[in-house]
Design goal:
Order of helices and strands: HHHHHHHHHHHHHH
Structural class: mainly alpha
Helix content: over 70%
Oligomer: single chain
Strand content: under 5%
Mean pLDDT: 77
Distance between the termini: 18 Å
Number of helices: 14
Shape: globular
Number of strands: 0
Length: 311
């Protein structure tokens, strides 16, 4: 009997230790590579191209492997909703926010509230309780993320419409995370990703065609950036994120997002020369401590506990 990726991860101690770190590193690196790619293509054009490559690649893999598709209309609908919320709403509104003048730092501050919204919602939508200790970790993680972002960012150019777009992106990621935990069913990663990225392409491509001049400056830097965003950021990172959500407590998993702004700032410092002042390093330490306190690096929750009890 074929085991799902999430089942394999939950039963393998090595994966349990390393999956959160792999997710944080690969996801955070996407911000710096996106900045590199945006030097050579308009934002929505770049995003649409990313989805075209993903759909083509996953379509070819699907033809070779022939993995099972969702077996019911409800399972199809679940994949469409998650793809729309996380891939389409989050990423499209992220790029709209950048177009409207929101800096990456200001956007990071807004997205850092995602674990707070998840923690407030899990009792209603995911049947979880958030302990006082985990709340303390969430607050500490948020404080660390804000310190890093404020220390490395300029907020003067942020526009009201850009802030609203950022809040919409936050809502998309939070809704998709909670929906996946509450209603999502285990699907083959190739089938699930193919459906979700096809939905994102259908939503994103018309905006690119209507709002932008479709021109791309092809060079080595652009190809490397696109390749990283396709393979590391989209295929690997998001597959691991959804696997962690299914197998762990969603509030623990979401607390990992506090590590994204500090780690992204570290990537930007290393790859594109953005400065990391002393306060930013202090904030990074606070964010790591907050995530550890919230349990984000020990993401196995009810699902793995039930698995142990069954054994």
């Amino acid at each position: 009997m074929r085991r799902s990726l999430s089942t394999t991860i939950s039963q393998n101690p090595w994966w349990v230790v390393w999956v959160p770190w792999v997710f944080v590193v690969l996801w955070s690196g996407g911000f710096a590579f996106a900045k590199i790619g945006l030097l050579y293509a308009a934002p929505l054009t770049f995003l649409a191209l990313r989805y075209v490559v993903l759909v083509a690649l996953l379509g070819a893999i699907y033809i070779v492997l022939r993995p099972p598709l969702p077996s019911s209309a409800r399972q199809w609908w679940d994949q469409i909703v998650v793809g729309f919320c996380i891939q389409a709403v989050y990423f499209v509104l992220t790029y709209f926010a950048f177009i409207l003048g929101v800096s990456a730092g200001a956007f990071g501050v807004i997205i850092s509230f995602q674990p707070i919204l998840v923690a407030l919602s899990v009792g209603r939508f995911a049947d979880e309780n958030v302990s006082a200790g985990r709340w303390l970790g969430i607050v500490c993680g948020l404080a660390g993320a804000v310190i890093v972002i404020v220390a490395t960012s300029d907020f003067d150019s942020t526009s009201l419409l850009g802030v609203l777009a950022s809040i919409g992106a936050l809502a998309g990621m939070t809704t998709g995370t909670l929906y996946e935990k509450r209603f999502g069913s285990a699907q083959h990663p190739v089938s699930a990703n193919l459906i979700q990225y096809a939905v994102a392409l259908i939503v994103c491509a018309p905006f690119a065609l209507l709002l932008e001049d479709i021109r791309i400056e092809w060079n080595t830097e652009f190809i490397v950036a696109l390749g990283y965003l396709v393979i590391a950021n989209s295929l690997i990172s998001l597959t691991l994120l959804l696997a962690m959500i299914r197998q762990g407590e969603v509030s623990r998993v979401s607390s990992l997002f506090f590590l994204v702004p500090p780690t992204a700032a570290l990537f930007a410092w290393a790859l594109i020369g953005e400065t990391m002042p002393p306060a930013a390093w202090l904030g990074m330490v606070a964010a790591v401590f907050g995530v550890a306190l919230a349990g984000g690096m020990q993401w196995r929750g009810k699902a793995s506990a039930d698995s142990k009890a069954a054994r």
